[in-house]
Amino acid sequence: MLTITIGHDSRPAPRVEYGIRLLQEALQQAGYDVRLQEADWSWDNYRAEDEIRLYAGSRGESALLQELERRDVLLYHTEAPAKEGFYLYSLPGNLTVVSGGNDSGVLYGCQELAERIGKAGKLPKDLAYGDAPDFSLRGPAIGLQKTTVEPPRQTYEYPITPGRFPWFYDRALWLDFLNMLLEQRCNIIYLWSGHPFSSLVKLEDYPEALEVTEEEFALNVDTFRWLAEEADRRGIWLVLKFYNIHIPLPFAEKHGLKLHQPKPLPLTADYYKKSIAAFVRSFPNVGLMVCLGEALQGQIYGVEWFNDTIIAGLLEGLRHSNVKEKPPIILRSHAIEPQKVIEAALPLYPNLYTEAKYNGESLTTYTPRGKWQDIHNRLGSLQTIHIVNVHILANLEPFRYGAPAFIQKCMQAAKYRLKSNGLHLYPLFFWDWPYSPDKPEEGAPRLRQIDRDWIWYAAWFRYAWNPDRDPEAERHYWSGLLAERYGSREAGEAILDAYEAAGECAPKLLRRFGITEGNRQTMSLGMTMSQLTNPERHMPWPDLWESQSPQGERLEEYVVRELGKEPHVGETPPDIIADSERHAQDALEAIDRAAGAVTRGRAEFERLRSDVQAIREMVGVYADKVRAAILLLTYKHTVQDDYFQRTDLLERAGDYMESSLNSYRRLTSLTDDTYLFANSMQTPQRKVPIRNGMEFRHWRECLPVYEQELDRFRFHVQELKSGTLPEALKNRQQPISALEQASFTLLSGHAETFRVEKGAEVFTDGDIHIVGCAEELDGLTGVRFSQREAGLRGIALEFELAEPAQVLIGYFNSKDQQWLQAPSLEENTHADDMGGYEPLLKKGLRLYAYPSVNVHAFRFDAGRHTLDFGKGAYLLLGVVPAGQSIRPRNVEHKNDGVETLDWLYE
Length: 906
Description:
Blueprint: E1 3-8, H1 14-29, E2 33-38, E3 52-58, H2 63-70, E4 86-91, E5 95-100, H3 103-120, E6 128-131, E7 137-143, H4 171-183, E8 188-192, H5 197-200, H6 214-233, E9 237-243, H7 249-255, H8 266-282, E10 286-291, H9 298-318, E11 329-332, H10 339-345, E12 352-357, H11 370-380, E13 385-390, H12 404-416, E14 422-425, H13 449-452, H14 454-465, H15 471-486, H16 489-502, H17 505-513, H18 529-533, H19 543-546, H20 555-563, H21 573-595, H22 602-639, H23 647-672, H24 699-721, H25 727-730, E15 744-746, E16 752-755, E17 770-773, E18 781-784, H26 787-792, E19 796-801, E20 805-812, E21 841-847, E22 853-860, E23 863-868, E24 875-881, E25 889-890
Parallel strand pairs: 1-2, 1-3, 3-5, 7-8, 7-14, 8-9, 9-10, 10-11, 11-12, 12-13, 13-14, 21-25
Antiparallel strand pairs: 4-5, 4-6, 15-19, 16-18, 17-21, 19-23, 20-22, 20-24, 21-22
Keywords: Hydrolase
Organism: Paenibacillus konkukensis
Protein name: Alpha glucuronidase N-terminal domain-containing protein
């Protein structure tokens, strides 16, 4: 038996120690007798007669490596190792060195050499190999979050307890996960929570802030410290993400505050600063990720809160710490422009990072463009490391996804188009970690995401290390991995073909036909005809096609161009349908081709095969429904309000709708035994295709809605064919009456009430008057204030209600910064907590020389309230009783009139 001595410096860092352990295990498995030695070797005495030696160290700290370099004994034919880079070299005299740029570089070098030893069955000779990551940060996000709200707590608010998160305390699960991440050379885990400090620290000044029992607190601290240490040994930063300003429920109740605060208060600032300081003292190797958007009015208070509270608390916690590296602070670019915050913070704390979503909350393209590309490029130009966040994946849920070629192009886009240098990767089923959505066999445990979705993680992190690998070599690599899992090269190649083809379907369908790239839509559950032909009614998110898609045409735009014989631009709906059907068919043929060659992993292969079949049916649902939509929009733009004409178009559309429905039935049948649900976030924020993600979370629950849609359509077509005018056409001019006024008391001295009517001035400064008013608003009592003050600093309005009521708020139809923007579920998960998310009266008010105004209604209980929306001018147009029904409509009749054709499906 050959003997190898592994030398190292005294008191090696945990990461170096772990790397040496990997080498030791690999050499022992190859049959060597391995000895570990604290090396006192020098450049002129490292040789030993008949002894094989191996040395691992950081070139910035190792005297041996530095002297070998100075003497030109250790030379690098690539870039010299820096940071996480490494170099493996066979020196004369039977010495092999692992030279790392830092401790992580040593770990990765040891890992690389251990893998080579394992493949060769011996220590390789003639080594001269260097490598380093392209992306500085590479790792997954894990949510300490649940799929349902726990009243009176709000979204994201979950104290960390064994009852809520049993997996958090499962050390075997964590070790499996950490080892997988090390194998893929990840160096960060982003752990998401709403307000974690109330579960991890105790404060003398605020004992009421602790939200867990003493036993739970002790268990949390012990678990978190163990996790941070185990992650650190594998070169992984643990970073804790939290929202601002969220406060613990018992703290809020004691001090009479709301759980989510829009602006800093001395009390909340003191509590947060002390919480962060205590957290950093307890866990000095854990970083922080900060979300200044959503609850906090970050555009106004972001700099103040970030510098005076968060960084101040961090620095206080580090004051007596001797950590080797200062923990990172990552500023999430969500509902805030972070540039000013970063510029103000850099002099105080240099280890700053920025983060922004890659394709919003879906995966749609490897050519992001437009506004979001500009945002990334601006952030990438700052003196920080910029991270792309592959977020939520709402259009991929719940199916497996493993298209390495698509993922590689995304990481190339992240590097070249978005100028980023870090990856923040969501699991495919974020909200239900650690479980996959697959329905288990009776009595069997649920599948773990790290087992089911191994290729998802492996592909993203492989290309985060190096996105520019040769495509042909990559095909060989992935086919080989799949061959190991499924038993043959033939199976591996065919399964890879199936993954690649199926992986094109969801991105293309959503980006051309979807309502949003966000969590609001579950794409695999389909879309209604109204959502396809009249998307404006359902509040589409323009970023989907303006930033998260290549150039192309939406459905109605395509039909108008086609009828006008105008040239088409970019992707068209028929292009995407043809591509998607081709990809789905290719995937199906490939997975069927693989079936006969699979000799291992049969159960998982059959689940993958079922997914490919389901994706094929999902494509069929969309393809035929889009064909129907094209015919219906052609009908709309052809008949010129004479709806008895061209019923042949309607009949053909009905045939396509029926074909789509048949595909949906097959999809429902397929998924009935394979999936528990389609989406991981089952909350009222899910609006598309059907409101309420709790009640409509599986295809079987949505199927009756689509069946009724077709029934209503067939009924109305028959009416038209028989010469009968459908009810909606008979009632085009339904009378509209004014809303009833509810009593309220205005308590703010800087504002005044006014009567809402034509000619009324809507602000206290300037002569801006109403020139057109929806009948519902006429005569209500509004509140006016200074437009200038609201636009520059924001206006807080205090009022009192004797009874529950709805407050009517008008938002200007303009993205200009002077105007307050309407609530958006894409940017604020709490946007619909009080209603008011969707406009009830679109363009319900017109003002002289100003943009039109959409009117929203917010619910308030009886009592005293303060409206404080932050910076931006808006209108308060009345207060009406809580039970007052307000019929949603477009006052200019552009998206709810009979010409939208929604009456055909309803």
